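> forwarded from #structure-qc
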């Protein structure tokens, strides 16, 4: 892959990840949005659930910031994409599958999230491996 294409692909990956993380964080801060996405009855329930979702939202916002930070030195920080895949995206997919298996999340609502997560895994890993051996050095693009 051409140098410029691999750089663009890295940057697109960082920004798609950051935007999607912020969207997920919003769904955690506003349980009615989470309920709508996954076809649940309003889960604006016990304060313990709200507290846990708030903590998770904080991590999602932090991960968005991390991806934007990685974009500042895209080749040098490309490893962030691998860390985003394992354990972040894979862990979220596992949580969704657990929600489906336990009957909490309807399968037909989980499919869209799982497809998006699968596409992100492919994009992030392709971006990472495409940027290896491009000839870019961290000093030249910083």
């Amino acid at each position: 892959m051409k140098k410029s294409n691999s750089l663009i692909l890295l940057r697109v990956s960082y920004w798609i990840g950051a935007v999607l993380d912020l969207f997920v964080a919003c769904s955690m801060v506003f349980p009615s949005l989470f309920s709508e996405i996954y076809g649940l009855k309003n889960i604006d329930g016990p304060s313990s659930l709200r507290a846990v979702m708030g903590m998770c939202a904080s991590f999602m916002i932090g991960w968005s910031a991390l991806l934007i930070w990685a974009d500042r030195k895209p080749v040098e920080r490309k490893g962030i994409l691998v860390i985003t895949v394992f354990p972040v995206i894979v862990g979220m997919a596992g949580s969704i599958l657990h929600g489906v298996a336990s009957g909490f999340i309807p399968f037909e609502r989980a499919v869209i999230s799982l497809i998006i997560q699968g596409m992100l895994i492919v994009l992030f890993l392709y971006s990472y491996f495409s940027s290896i051996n491009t000839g870019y050095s961290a000093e030249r693009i910083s």
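QC bot note: Helices lie at 3-29, 31-38, 47-72, 79-101, 107-131, 138-141. The chain has a mean pLDDT of 91.
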